[in-house]
Design brief:
The complex is a heterodimer. Chain A is mainly β. Chain A contains no helices and twelve strands. In chain B, the strands form two sheets. In chain B, strands 2, 4, 5, 6, 9, 10 and 11 form a seven-stranded mixed beta sheet that branches. In chain B, strands 1-3-8-7 form a four-stranded antiparallel beta sheet, with no helix packed on it. The chains are: A mainly beta, B mainly beta.
């Protein structure tokens, strides 16, 4: 079985400060890891993914995430938060190297960036 | 702008009504998905179509009936729904169900209210 934990239901940061949204995972074999963002009353938008290679992955809108195999983590980061980054963020994992790997989502983290 | 288009954006129906949700993508993707999402919760997988064939049904009640008329279109037929079926229904596509590295592209969703 595979699972994703997003330990913080909510994260609050001031505009201009760095932000981190945490994600840890559990999966057998190699993990394929994804971050999605959902703005109010919208669908999910893909931000970035880790499949293999460099542990630091850069994605859309200035976001990046670091894959840490020993800590089974894939935290989402941004050096300087914007008010427009306020949204619901989902981490997701899939077991790599399989013919079909179901995508498992975390419970989500609400990010609020204050002016 | 999303490349997965869902209609209608909002739907209100009674428990005896029959309605359909529609989804269209023109990215040449061969896998299409239906998800159900409750407020501030992660999406829950309902169905997966791969090459226009139903490949996964996550034990969804028969009052939900998916249909994939061609590789670009995905429908979800609704009949005799219950108030607890009220949710945001998200359509997604990916290049290929078997390509675990691929991210999902989501539509904006259809918000369903069952009275």
């Amino acid at each position: 079985a595979q699972s994703v934990a997003q330990p913080e239901d909510q994260v609050n940061v001031a505009e201009g400060n760095p932000l981190t949204v945490k994600c840890t995972y559990s999966v057998s074999g190699n993990p394929y890891l994804f971050w999605y963002v959902q703005y109010p009353n919208r669908g999910l938008q893909f931000l970035l993914k880790y499949i293999t290679g460099d542990n630091l992955v850069k994605g859309s809108y200035g976001f990046e995430a670091e894959f840490n195999k020993s800590q089974t983590s894939f935290h989402l980061k941004k050096p300087s938060a914007l008010v427009s980054d306020s949204a619901l963020y989902f981490c997701a994992v899939r077991r790599g190297g399989t013919s079909y790997g179901k995508l498992t989502f975390g419970q989500g983290t609400i990010l609020t960036v204050h002016p | 702008d999303t490349e997965v288009t869902q209609t209608p954006k909002h739907l209100v129906m009674g428990m005896t009504n029959k309605k359909s949700l529609k989804c269209e993508q023109h990215m040449g993707h061969r896998a299409m998905y239906w998800y159900k999402q409750k407020a501030k919760k992660p999406p829950e997988l309902m169905f997966v179509y791969s090459y226009e064939k139903l490949s996964i049904n996550e034990s969804v009640p028969s009052r939900f009936s998916p249909e994939c008329p061609n590789s670009s279109l995905l429908n979800l037929h609704l009949h005799a729904l219950q108030p607890e079926d009220s949710a945001l229904y998200l359509c997604a596509s990916s290049q290929d169900q078997l390509a675990s590295v691929g991210e999902l592209f989501f539509g904006e969703g259809s918000r369903l209210t069952v009275l």
